[in-house]
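I had to read the description of the data format several times before I understood it. In essence, backbone conformation is discretised, so a fold becomes a row of integers matching the chain in length. I therefore recommend that a typical entry be quoted early in the introduction. For illustration, here is how one protein appears when written out as sequence plus structure tokens.

***
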Amino acid sequence: MTDFHRLLRELEALQPRLKMDARHSYRLDGKHVRNVTTIGRVVNKPQLNDWMVRTSVEGVARYCYSHPPIDGMDSEAAYVRYVSEAAAEQYEHEKLSDEAKTLGKELHACVEHYCKGKLGEPCEEPFVSTKAAEMFKRWLGWAQDMKLTPLAVEKRVYHVTDNYTGTFDLLTMFRDRLALLDWKTSTGTAVWPEHRYQSVAYRAALYSMGWDPMDGHVVKVPQEGPVEATLLESGAEFDELYQGFKAQLLLTEQLAALEKRSRKAKEKW
């Protein structure tokens, strides 16, 4: 039987050794370690690219509709220049993305405060927007219905053989099973591949530290609507996805080595 108390003590002892700066760069005992989020950036995200283009076009269209071009703009070149300048100022996808990131950080802060309170750990109560407070209220009702029993919240993990790190959201007892939960505030019910790779990577890191296999869930907390949990891959499917994550890790290391080689070549010439 897993000795949760010993493993939790070892996880806690890791925290002061594994530092993270404002740029989400991790160092273990002073040595740089690649993190799950950075590693995942090597994977193409077509759904995100589609969203960026669509929202940018919509933002520029709204701006041009409410700010019609001045009289006398009768040439195609002048109109194209006008729309291009509007597009350069709008960046609708960046505005929406920044808003979503802020809401996500606020929700994480609320959940962290609640879970640490359950664990008897000190945590300053966050000041958040009304929208984030409403999202947390719905999350709290869901968590109480599910009888969540937090074990560790917002902890950094390290894979002792594959040499990467990251920070998980919540390790808990969920539906009477040990589980790692990851909060997402994106709209829709879809669980994207990067979410699955992320959960696999965090769980594999815990396994390397002595933890038994556990469930992984993505928990969607949208701005409106119900909170929903999606059970992720386990068993053979977990192993297959982890091989995919290790390929991302290898590619990340190779790209870094090539960039370093390129810089040295430029310095030489």
User: Anything to note?
Assistant: The mean pLDDT is 85. The CA atoms of residues 135 and 224 lie 8 Å apart.
